[in-house]
Design goal:
alpha+beta; 31% helix; 4 helices; six-stranded antiparallel sheet; 172 residues
C-alpha cells in the first residue's frame, strides 16, 4: 500500500480550469499549512525495508530540506525499520508500516509493526542479526523528539524533526 499526498503548491489537476479552484480548496499560498504524506506497508524483511528507505528518500527529496536533515531522517528511519526486520518477528513473517508526514515546519515519521515488542531487558546473543543495542540511542540522538510504544501487540516508533530549512521556507 502506498499513499502519497503532494504539497498544495503542486498541480494535481484538481482545478476545474486554469484559475478556478474546486469548492472547499484554498488556492496555493492562501494561508494553508503545507502538508505532505507518505505511507507504505511492506514485508519486514531486510531487502524490503531497504526498499522502503529508498522510497522515503524519494519522498523527502520533494521537500525543501537541507542534506543534514534528510540524512538524519533517513538514518533514524532505517534504524527503526532494521529493528523491525531483525527483532519484531522471531518466526520471520510480518509487516512493517512506514508513515511520514510533513505538516508546517515539522516532519514526523512513524514505523509500526505488530510483532513481539521490545523486551524490557534484551538479552545479548551472537545469534542476533544486528550488532544490537545502539539503534534506539541513535534515533534519540538525531531526532528532535522520539516516542516508542511497545508491547506484546507490537511496536510504534514515532520520530519528529523541525528542520531549519522548513522554518526558513515557511517565512518566505
Amino acid at each position: 500500500m502506498h499513499r502519497h499526498t503532494p504539497e498544495p503548491e503542486v498541480d494535481t489537476a484538481e482545478t476545474a480550469d486554469a484559475g478556478t479552484t474546486l469548492p472547499g480548496r484554498l488556492p496555493p499560498g492562501a494561508g494553508t499549512v503545507a502538508t505532505s504524506t507518505f505511507e507504505e506497508l511492506s514485508p519486514a524483511l531486510p531487502n524490503d525495508v531497504a526498499d522502503l528507505r529508498r522510497k522515503l528518500v524519494r519522498w523527502l527529496s520533494e521537500l525543501p530540506l537541507d542534506p543534514e536533515s534528510t540524512h538524519d531522517i533517513t538514518l533514524a528511519t532505517y534504524e527503526a525499520l532494521a529493528n523491525v526486520a531483525a527483532h519484531a518477528y522471531p518466526d520471520g513473517r510480518g509487516w512493517a508500516r512506514l508513515q511520514a508526514t510533513r505538516v508546517g515546519d515539522a516532519v514526523t515519521v512513524t514505523v509500526t509493526d505488530t510483532g513481539c515488542g521490545i523486551p524490557a531487558t534484551r538479552p545479548r546473543s551472537a545469534a542476533l542479526r544486528t550488532s544490537g543495542g545502539r539503534g534506539l540511542l541513535l534515533i534519540d540522538k538525531v531526532t528532535d523528539q522520539s516516542e516508542i510504544d511497545t508491547g506484546e501487540q507490537g511496536t510504534r516508533v514515532r520520530m519528529t524533526w523541525r528542520p531549519a530549512a522548513l522554518r526558513d521556507a515557511g517565512a518566505a
